[in-house]
Design a protein that fits this description.
This protein is α/β, with parallel strands linked by helices. It has one domain: 3-Layer(aba) Sandwich (Rossmann fold). It contains six helices and nine strands, in the order βαβαβαβαβαββαββ. The strands form two sheets. A seven-stranded mixed β-sheet has the order 3-2-1-4-5-6-7, with helices on one face. It binds glycinamide ribonucleotide (GAR). Glycinamide ribonucleotide binds next to helix 1, strand 5 and helix 6.
Length: about 210
Amino acid sequence: MKKIVILISGRGSNMQALLQAQLPCTIAAVISNRASAEGLSFAAAQGIPTAVISHQDYPTRADFDVALAKVIDQYQADFVILAGFMRILTPEFVSHYCGRLVNIHPSLLPAYTGLHTHARALQDDIKIHGCTVHFVTADLDHGPIIIQAAVPVLCDDTEDVLSERVLLEEHRVYPQAVRWLCDGEVSLIEGKVKFCHQKQASFALISPGLE
Ligand code: GAR
C-alpha cells in the first residue's frame, strides 16, 4: 500500500476530505508549518501522526525546506500532498519529490496563479471558475494538470460564496486525484501527465446557461 504525507497550513478541509475518502493508501502523517493550523486537531483525532515544522524557526526558505523534507522522508512517503500548504517551495525540494508532489489550487490554472483567486475572478467578471490538482514544479502554480473542476460564477456571488462553491469541488477532485496516484492510474512521465485509462468528460458547462 502506498504511503502519503499531507502538508497543511490552516483549516485543513481538503486534508479532511482526503482522510474521509477511504483512499487506498496509508496516511502516514499530516504536517503543518503553523502550530495553530486548525486541521491538526482533526488529523490527530483520527489517529494520524501530526507534526509541526514552523518556518519561523529557520533562517532561510532553503533551511526550512531541508528540515521539512527530512521529516517527510522519515515516513517514506510515496506521495506528498499539499492541501492548503501556503509556502513557496525551493526548486531543490520540488525536484527531490519530482512526480510525487501534488497541489490543489483554487482556480482553473493557468488562470489566476497565486493568491486571492476568487476575488480576482469576480473582478474580471469571468463566467466559469474552478479548481485544479496538478503536479508541483519549480514554476509556481504551473505544473502539469491532473484534474480540474469548473463551476459557474453567478451574478450575485461574493468572494465567500464563490469560494465555497469551488471548495465543494476541491473536496471531490482531490480525493479522486490521490486515488489515481495511489492506484498507479496517473503519473508524471517526461514532464507530462499520463493516464493508464484516459477519462473523458462528455459535457460542457455553459455559464450563464442557454435559454
Ligand atoms: C484551498 O482552497 C486550496 O485550494 C487553497 O487554500 C485553501 C485551503 O483550504 N490553496 C492554495 O491557494 C494554494 N496555492 P483548506 O485548508 O480548507 O484545505
